[in-house]
Hints:
By secondary structure, the protein is an alpha/beta fold. It has helices spanning 30-43, 56-69, 82-92, 113-122, 137-144, 167-176, 196-199, 271-287, 289-309, 337-343, 365-378; strands spanning 18-19, 76-79, 100-104, 125-129, 149-154, 180-184, 203-207, 219-223, 325-328, 346-347, 349-351, 354-357.
Amino acid sequence: MPVLASQRxxxxxxxxxxxxxxxxxxxxxxxxxxAGKAAxxxxxRPWEIRSADFFDKVERVRTLFGELAGTSAECIALVPSASxxxxxxxxxxxxxxxxxxxLLEGEYPSNFxxxxxxxxxxGGTLVRxxxxxxxxxxxxxxxxxxxxxxxxxxxxxxxxxxxxLDLARIAGACRAQETALVLDLTQSWGAMPLDLAAVDPDxxxxxxxKWLLSPYGSGLMYVAPRHHDKRPLEENWAARxxxxxxxxxxxxxxxxxxxxxxxxxxxxxxxxxVAQMEAALEQLxxxxxxxxxxxxxxxxxxxxxxxxxxxxxxxxxxxxxxxIIGFPLPAEAGADLxxxxxxxxxxxxxRGAMLRLSPHLHVEQSDLDRFxxxxxxxxxx
Length: 381
Ligand SMILES: Cc1ncc(COP(=O)(O)O)c(C=O)c1O
């Protein structure tokens, strides 16, 4: 696997900033800014925007993302957020009284509230998999996958520390008892390889503004072909057959656009966002997820060594994502550690009791040096 050297020049990160916070929000690619600016300029000339422009770039985004995710454009829908995609899945999957949805304890709220509501409204329950002391989420999930669990809604790695799940194993167990599998891949798609065909989830969703390097308010959803006939969350004109012909939107059409297109959010042709997604996905496809992951693993490994040197050690996890690492906050570090590091030009997150580091390809040796220095001066009072 060829390892990608630093790609700093592709990003808008100034020299004096050590940004280790892609899990919070992606650093912006230069090509993404240029595409956005060009789209805003184009919008000043609506007479140049043709009906085909509502569809062509959207289809290009579907194709590019299909390539990145290892599936076909037919299975991809454009959504505005992870919560929208998860709500689509919750509305589409069968679920009744006495049944359960399985989630990780401490799951990101967008992947909690919708299932909590579904369980409450339909007389079901939640099975919440407690955080395992040995970091083995896979074993913990398999252990709690009782027959009442009809839906499991899981990530590829835990959002606060990157402890990873073996989704192929979990998917096999779900399949064996006909439990639907929904994936929130917001913290992994684009940075962590996933064999989508082998896992074969029912729905998989990612907000775009993290590892897909796309704008805030964009997201992508995979819908398995067996659900392409399900009910979308809303009804919009562009999702119906023949929408390309603006002169004939009426009479109304019963048929939808083919594949997963019926699940697109209304106004998904959003010209600025779609142009920016196209630019981001082109770059990600050119780099390749395997190569991105290989380089990010090197970077997180080096960061972990620096943290160990400052007496901060990762909680053990048998499987660890390549791109996110978390450390228990040292008691003596003080609640304002993140702010003090930021004052030294180093950006990372605190999530609960964890300090989270999540670099992208712009990070290079000078960033690691800056991080080490800031950790030494800010890590301990
Ligand atoms: C695991 C996970 N899912 C989803 C989101 C974002 O959710 P939404 O797109 O609904 O705002 C985040 C944001 O941090 C996240 O970490």
